[in-house]
Design brief:
Blueprint: H1 3-23, H2 30-33, E1 46-49, E2 52-57, E3 60-65, E4 69-75, E5 78-83, E6 89-91, H3 95-101, E7 107-111, E8 114-117, E9 121-125, E10 128-131, E11 136-138, H4 144-150
Antiparallel strand pairs: 1-2, 2-3, 4-5, 4-8, 5-6, 7-8, 9-10, 10-11
């Protein structure tokens, strides 16, 4: 086996591994993880399929259920993904790009820098969502009408909370 054939074999393995990840055909083996290169525009940092997402982290994909996403926080042209457990992950794609792949019925943008998972909210008081972990996230003035119109309010006569 020549050096050229070894390089060709490694490249073929890289493409095969990338295709497995993209198609979710089967999980990577420990031996294959080191072959995966940083993602380009063709292979994004966050891939969402059905109820799971694959997030590029430290030269491999981290598999997370979508329901474990607490909220997204914009950080310039990057997105910080916060989870119910563990540390947040910073990915090199915009919050808009990530949010566009998430189920609209569960995720709602509440301000320029935040998109929350409604499954992890406990209360809405005034213009603030109180999350199950106690965090308070304020609805931005330009997002209030859209947020309120997407929710169903029961037991209030206030005109502030318009019916759909």
């Amino acid at each position: 086996s020549t050096p050229t054939s070894k390089v060709r074999e490694k490249l073929n393995n890289v493409y095969r591994v990338k295709n497995q990840v993209i198609n979710l055909a089967k999980p990577l083996t420990t031996e294959e993880e080191y072959l995966v290169e940083p993602m380009s525009a063709e292979y994004p940092d966050v891939i969402i399929r059905d109820s799971y997402c694959l997030i590029w982290e430290k030269r491999k994909f981290r598999l997370e259920p979508i329901d474990s996403i607490y909220y997204l926080k914009a950080d310039r042209s990057c997105c910080e993904i916060h989870f119910t457990e563990g540390n947040p992950i910073l990915v090199s794609v915009s919050m808009n790009t990530v949010a566009a792949q998430l189920p609209e019925k569960d995720f709602i943008r509440i301000q320029k820098s935040y998109t929350i998972n409604l499954k992890h909210t406990k209360y809405l008081t005034g213009n603030t969502f109180i999350m199950k972990n106690g965090e308070r996230l304020t609805i931005g003035p330009e997002y209030r009408e859209e947020v309120y119109s997407s929710l169903i309010f029961i037991g209030t006569k206030s005109k502030k909370y318009r019916q759909r």
